[in-house]
Amino acid sequence: MGVNKNKKSKAIKAISLSIGLAVMGSMSAASAADDQALLNMCKACHGNDGSSEFASTPNLKWQNTAYMVKQLEQFKSGQRQDKTMTKVAKILNKQQMEALASYFNKGKEE
Ligand code: HEC
User: Fold this and answer.
1) Which of 3, 61, 101, 108 gives 20 to 30 Å between its CA and that of 38?
2) Which among 21, 39, 43, 45 is the best mutation to test ligand 1's pocket, defined by most ligand atoms within 8 Å of the CB?
3) Could you tell me if the CB of 68 is within 6 A of ligand 1?
4) Of residues 92, 95, 106, the one with CA closest to residue 38
């Protein structure tokens, strides 16, 4: 239990740092490096292949791509609310949503 908690708080620290970096990155033109940074941020919570280690984080592995894009759009528009995902979705454009959703739909580590 204790170990798991510690791991989670470490992960959360790393994640808030990457959210900060991603927000900064989104101000410049989108590049492959930005996309990789975005994917790493998603992986930190949702798992490398979309199977999450955290009970409070849903698995994205093999989920329908169109469904995931729709959820991200709803987080961005405020129709769906979550403390973290609302912030995360705001920095994504449609192309990035599609690319990330298609990565997790495959359910394979890259
Ligand atoms: C800090 C942790 C965290 C990060 C980083 C994160 N997510 Fe999430 N994500 C969550 C949590 C928690 C939920 C569940 C929210 C809820 O309960 O509504 C969620 C929900 C989702 C959902 C909806 C899943 C469903 O079954 O409806 C999608 C899609 C998603 N995230 C994609 C992403 C993508 C893509 C990224 C990277 C750009 C990302 N997430 C980054 C924690 C995170």
Assistant:
1) 3
2) 45
3) yes
4) 92
Q: What is the DSSP letter of 26?
A: T
CA angle 72, 77, 78 (to 5 degrees): 95
Q: Spell out the alpha helix ranges (H) of the chain.
A: 2-25, 32-46, 65-77, 83-90, 94-106
Work out the angle between the directed axes of helices 94-106 and 65-77 (0-180°, nearest 10). 140
Q: Choose between 94 and 2: higher pLDDT.
A: 94
Average pLDDT, the chain: 85
Number of domains making up the chain:
1
Q: Is the pLDDT confidence value at 3 over 80?
A: no
Pocket test for ligand 1, best of 72, 76, 88, 106 (most atoms within 8 A of CB): 88
Task: Say which CATH number the domain at 38 has.
Answer: 1.10.760.10
CB of 58 within 6 A of ligand 1: the answer is yes
* Higher-pLDDT residue of 24, 60: 60
In whole angstroms, give the CA distance from residue 105 to residue 75: 19
